[in-house]
Amino acid sequence: MKELTEEQIKRQDSVDNAIYQLIQELNPADKELAWDIEMIGEVRDVIEDWMVERLKITDEQGFNVYLEQ
User: Fold this and answer.
1) How many Cβ atoms sit within 10 Å of the Cβ of residue 63?
2) Residue 19 lies in a domain
3) Is the pTM of this model over 0.70?
């Protein structure tokens, strides 16, 4: 597997944090959910699939590299 660049790692961290915050906002329980990278990674994969394969608004590299400035 190809090593991620520093830019890709920052992007992935940003996406993972946004997904975690969304999960917390959608959580109907009073208890905060623990950070679960397996769950977050599965959600990230679905979002990437939608943006790359279904909506075709970017490619895989673009999804993994783009950083909000």
Assistant:
1) 20
2) no
3) yes
